[in-house]
Amino acid sequence: MSHFETQLSLKSKNFPRIFFRYVDDIFAVVSFTKEELAEFVDFMNSQYASIKFTVEVELDSKLPFLDILVSRNNGSLDFDIYRKPTQVDRFIDNSSFHPKEHKLAAFNSMIHRMLNFPLSKSNLLKENQSHQICCNTKWLSFF
What we know:
This protein is an alpha+beta fold and 143 residues long.
């Protein structure tokens, strides 16, 4: 994919200035019309028969990318934790017979995500309250 991306940037006259890829997911910021976007996707799909791209366009100035919800807000980008509408927040119960590491995996993942994603203070507090990870806001201000 890295080679494909490099070749694409050299061949395309409209290659996005902001283009982030994680494995097979790409986040790009473009100022294309719908027709130009369709042409660019067709161009990308014409490069290799085994690689096919699809497009998801922002809705209400918001676009999910991996675990992040990216929102446009007065010329800047805001970030929040993205959960699919089918998310049920069910985790391995402490009374299960799973190994302790499995029980802690979801908790560790949520903490890591909360502390390492560039969340605004309000989104950080919302995330903290939604999982009841910590009630003490002084603990949050430490990070």
